[in-house]
Amino acid sequence: MRRFLFLYVLLLLFLNLTPRVPSSPVANGDKLAHLVEFAALGFLGWRLWTYLLPLPFLLEFLQLFIPGRTFSFADMAANLIGFTLGVTAGWWYDGSHEGTEVSNEGGD
């Protein structure tokens, strides 16, 4: 699984740091693409989320230095939201939430 994660990170580097920007026929389709890309990253690497967390920020920031690319806070937000959703889905899918007790101290 880690090999696949490594290959996926390489794919994300390529997609986010190449000068050629693919166009989307859908309005704000690039935001959806960012969300899906980073949701997949979060899902695949949810156990390593602390190491992968800088990527949603870093890849967008590095676009400042790539000809033909632009920095966007909206894209960065889509990256982070997708990553968070992916990590949550990975955690849930793996079953790590099972056996976790929810306490209601001081409540009802």
UniProtKB/TrEMBL annotation:
The chain crosses the membrane at residues 39-59, 71-93. InterPro entries: VanZ-like. The keyword Membrane applies. Residues 29-88 form the VanZ-like domain. It holds the Pfam family VanZ. The keyword Ribonucleoprotein does not apply. Keywords: Membrane, Transmembrane, Transmembrane helix. PANTHER family: DOMAIN PROTEIN, PUTATIVE (AFU_ORTHOLOGUE AFUA_3G10980)-RELATED (PTHR28008:SF1). This is VanZ-like domain-containing protein.
